[in-house]
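The aim of this short unit is practical: by the end, you should be able to scan a pair of folded records and say something sensible about each. We start with the first protein, listed as its amino acid sequence and then its structure tokens.
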Amino acid sequence: MERNIKLIVEYEGTAYHGWQWQENAPTVQGVLEAAIRKLTGEKLRVTAAGRTDAGVHAWGQVVNFKTHTALPVYKIMMGLNAHLPRDVRVRQADEADLEFSARFSAKQRVYQYYISTENTAIYRNFCWQLFQKFDPELLNPVAESLLGEHDFGAFSRVQVDTAHKRCRVEESRWFRQNGLWVYRVAANRFLHGMVRTIVGTTIDVARGRFTMEEFQEIFNSRKRELAGAAAPAKGLFFQEVIY
């Protein structure tokens, strides 16, 4: 009997060339599918809620796959973790309806980006260590201007495999947590490189490279070449998925 297994997966992206399977490079999808094959004997493809770039991490990536294994879900979780490298963990496993898709059933995806303004050994692989002075009072005015449905072409890679670049942002805010600056953003979809470019350009405003008016002009232009450089990948986490 066919079953649909839903996983919540946590991973450190430092050693991987992103989520998506590649023939000649280590990826998170690749090691997860290899673990499933070792556990069940089935060679299959998993579906993820979103793709993460090289060096990007995840607290709550959601994955589903169809299987004929009779193993109970708690043994699936335990068995996969036994076969996975230590930088990839299955945090939860459940049986879902056959119609459930980690990607297409999702209503919102949530990312968080972390910045440290101090030298740090513990968080060095998990944040952007930013030592230039910036005005934190400008962070949330920029973030709030992104709320709603807009074309985010100015903050995505020029070539994307989607029909359009419109996204609906439901949450966009900065806050302090454990001595770090955190940007949290939730949207129905994200474009390739979108969050990192938003963060990099926002910091450019806070450092005085762009004014708020110039930021809005960049946003409205839909031209990636006018925006700032993308923030480093290691500060970005795929936080959770809302269904």
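Turning to the second protein, read its sequence before its tokens, just as you did above.
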Amino acid sequence: MKNWIIVGVTSAIAESVARIWAERGYKLFLVARNENRLADIAQDLKVRGAASVTTFAMDANAFERHQECFDAALKSMGRIDGILVAHGTLPDQKACETSFNVARSEIETNGLSVISLCTIAANLFEQQRQGDIAVISSVAGDRGRQSNYVYGAAKGMVSIFLQGLRNRLAKSGVHVTTIKPGFVDTPMTASFDKGGPLWASADQVASGIVGAVDKKRNVVYLPWFWWIIMNIIRHIPEFIFKKMKL
């Protein structure tokens, strides 16, 4: 039995991960903004077999409450074996281009709040010399594109931060997994045209996340073929790439 914090559990992917862990009999500490949704998910996970389920209502941008969240998780579960950070927003790129305040807010949500939570987790796990940090980043962070470069910048910051954190914590028995989904059919992408083979379901991505955590993967692209796609995109020369409409 393991004890996990899930931040952003009301997202489709995180909720699906939580269901898998509940069926394994894990203790779960669920964090999200919407108290009603938290209560509904908690009840469902108890029915599915979770050893215990505790909820903590918090906006991820309330940085001053992050330590309180960890303290509550420790009090509830006795110890923390891992944290899945899965919250985020999909910004309106045009709004970010016309307003720095909008761009800053999106970077705080998708980047800085993640770094804050991971810093607290890293220090705790380093002290106890065990633990897993799993974070949903994105393929968007692999290269800046005109269609979503503010979102990509935040996710790129997270990916580089996790890379350094993984290097720092390796000697302490703490593992860091960077999760990079491609296109996922979730409520957050409801306005997108979802035809074609590149789209995955939340359940498919969740299964990949659980497998990556179990196998102590460092970086995982979900589905796997996004590694090929992004490897090609990363290696397009800049003088060609800047003329492309991506």
